[in-house]
Fold this protein.
Amino acid sequence: PAEQHNLDEPFTIGCQDVSKLVTRPRENAVLVMLARNSELQEARATIRNVEDKFNKWFKYPVLFLNNEPWSEEFMRVMKETVSGEAKFEVIPEGIWGPTEGLTEEVMNKYLKQQEADGVYKGQIAGYHHMCRFYSGEFYSLEALKEYKYYWRLEPGVSYSCSLTYDPFLEMARRGKKYGYTVALWEEPNTCPSLFRAVDEFRTQNNIPMHPNWKAMIDTETNWLLKPAPIRWLLGKMLRREHYNIKGEKWNLCHYWSNFEIADLDFFRGDQYQRLFKHLDKSGGFYRERWGDAPVHSLAVHLLLEAKELHHFSDIGYYHHPFWQCPQNAKGRQLLDDVMIGEASQKMTEEQEGGFGCRCECGLGNSDDFRMRNNRGICLERMQQPAAWTRASWWD
Ligand code: GDP
Ligand code: MN
C-alpha cells in the first residue's frame, strides 16, 4: 500500500503466472546492449541469462550497438541466443567521438592528466566516447526511433531472479520514466565540475528547486545559513569540487546506468537534450571523465517528479563488484538484511517468499559487495520517512 508510507513499492510481489501476462501487443520496447566483438563470451552469457529469466516469455527485440562493424561470429551467436529479433547497429561516425571542436592533441593532454590523477578509466579515450555517447547521442539513434522504452544490458552482468511480469508495461501503466537497481556514490575525481554545470543549466532555465532536486544536495553544507567566519571558510571551499555557485553540495549519489529501464521520450525530449548539449559544450566529458550515470541521475532529479522514478527492488542484479538481492529472496543468507523498515514488517506470510521471484542470489557466493537497503542515498532522502534513514547502507 504505497499511500500508507509513501514508498515506491515493487510492481509485483513473488512470481506471476506468466502465461496469463504474455499478451499481444507488447509494450513498444527494446533491450539494448553496447558491446565490442571481443566481448562475445560475456555478451552471450548475459543474453542467455536474460532470456532464461525474462525474455523467453516476452520475446522483446535486442539491439546490439558497436562503434565498429560487427563480426559475423558475434551476429551469428546472438541470433541463436536471442528469442526475439536480434538487431545489429554500427554507431555512425561523428556520434561516437569527441565533443565538437576538441582536438586530438588537447584530448590526449586531458587523458594523460587523468591517468596521473588516478581517475577511473580516465586515460581511455574510448571510455570517454562511451560515456558521452550514452549521455546524449544514444537517444538520437535512428535505430531507437520506433521505440518508447529501453532496457540497458551490458556484457558480463547477470540477473538472479526471474522477472515474471513485463516491466515496460508496468512503467507505462504507472507513469514511470526511469527505473534503476543500484545507487552508489560517484568517484569524486571523475566529475569535479559536473554538478556546477548542471546547476548552471538549472539557473539559466529557471528550473525550480523542487524536493526531487534538493534530494541530491547535501544540505549540511548550506553555508548561507551559517555565521560569517564559517561562511568565509566555506567560501574558500566553493572552489572545491561538487559545489554550485550558491555553495550547495551534490551528495554524489547516482544510479548505476549499466542497468536502466527508461522512457526514451524523456531523454530525447527537448529539455534533456538541451541539458546534454550544455554539458557537452562545457567540455567535461573529456576534460574530466563524466560518466553517463551521474549525468542521467542529475537530470532525472532535476527534470522528473519523484513519482516518475522507480527502484526495481525486486530485480536480482549483478555487475562486478556489486549486487542487489531482493528483500526476503528465498535463500538469502542474512535475515537482518531483509528489513528496510515498515514495508517488510507489514509483509504478510504469503509475501514472505520475497519481492523477487525464484531468486538465486543471497547464497553467499562471493567477495563482492552485497547491497543492503539499497533504495540508495538519492531517493531515500526524498521518499522515506526520517526514521528510516541510516548512516550506512551497504555491508
Ligand atoms: P564500466 O562498467 O563502467 O567499468 O565500463 P564497461 O567496460 O563495462 O563499459 C560499459 C559499456 O560500454 C559496456 O557495455 C561495454 O561493452 C561498452 N564499451 C565500453 N567501451 C567501448 C568501446 O570502446 N566500444 C564499444 N563498442 N563498446 C564499449
Ligand atoms: Mn560494466
